[in-house]
Design goal:
Length: about 300
């Protein structure tokens, strides 16, 4: 396995719509928080919460509970949109106080990040990088009710504001994250570990059950679930896990049938637009799997 490509820990603000622990809720954001804390190449400075998988108040409570399970009650949690602007203000304050030092890892709707940029446009220049789990770039959702990837679909205006901000951006989209999976067998193996593993295994099996009922014709969702958010966390210190391409991305905000759809220009034609981000276009799924399970085994 490759070593982290950074020497000093990368200091991150993790912006999340965490739902692990709620009945029948998605689990990948909980795994992402656990992975961020387990990665010796990362230092989680603050967690900010946003509404998405559930309401923001529940997300805040579940985040604090999970931090307790992981033995990290010392990590501050700041509640954000839509209930308030505290998270956006905290993001702006922290980033502006230490230009070039903090990375934002956004694994929910981009509402807090866009609000921080609106409050203080200088955040775009001061942030080290913004790494986003969001969008679908080389494929599409193939779901008319949700044409854009969920995080972009929830708040397409915020996603477009981030794209236009001028910040250093990396997007890890649905077409790549769907390829990294956690099976029922993997979940049962987690249950033999510490308290987090036992909790995560129980909720993972419940989430796979829900996915199988909700998506009976989608073969990839049978027997496993995707680790969308953990992949976005992992690439902060292991960018080699995915293949990156420069692109110009814009997000549809007003389309009657294309809400939240990301249009990625891959700069292939003559006189292309200026790139505004890098997008993941492929993933080394076995390498990520090895890294993920190694980190999970190290958790309490």
């Amino acid at each position: 396995m490759g070593e982290s490509l950074t020497r000093e820990p990368v200091r991150i603000i993790l912006d999340t719509d965490l739902a692990m622990g709620a009945p029948g809720a998605d689990v990948d954001d909980g795994f992402a928080l656990a992975l961020a804390l387990a990665d010796p190449g990362l230092r989680v400075e603050t967690v900010t919460t946003v509404g998405g998988n559930g309401d923001v108040v529940s997300s805040t409570r579940l985040t604090r509970e999970l931090l307790g399970v992981l033995g990290r009650r010392d990590v501050p949690v700041v509640q954000g949109a839509p209930a308030g602007v505290e998270a956006a203000e905290e993001i702006a304050r922290r980033v502006l106080a230490e230009p070039g030092r903090l990375t934002i890892v956004a694994i929910g709707p981009l509402t807090n990040v866009a609000r921080a940029l609106a409050i203080a446009p200088g955040v775009a220049r001061a942030v080290r990088e913004i790494v986003v789990m969001g969008g679908v770039f080389l494929e599409q959702t193939n779901v008319a009710a949700m044409p854009g990837e969920y995080n972009f679909w929830c708040d397409p205006e915020a996603a477009q504001a981030v794209c236009e901000s001028g910040a250093s951006l990396r997007f890890v989209g649905l077409d790549v994250t769907r390829r990294v999976r956690l099976s029922r067998e993997d979940a049962r193996a987690l249950a033999s570990g510490g308290e987090f593993g036992r909790i995560a295994a129980r909720h993972t099996e419940a989430w796979i059950d829900f996915q199988e009922r909700a998506k009976p014709r989608e073969a990839i969702e049978q027997g496993s679930c995707a680790l969308h958010d953990p992949l976005a966390v992992a690439v902060v210190t292991r960018p080699d896990l995915v293949t990156w391409s420069e692109a110009h991305v814009a997000v549809e905000t007003a389309g009657r049938v294309t809400r939240g759809v990301a249009v990625a220009d891959l700069l292939m034609w003559e006189n292309p637009p200026e790139p505004n981000c890098r997008i993941a276009t492929a993933v080394d799924a076995p390498a990520f799997r090895e890294l993920f399970h190694e980190r999970m085994r190290a958790l309490p």
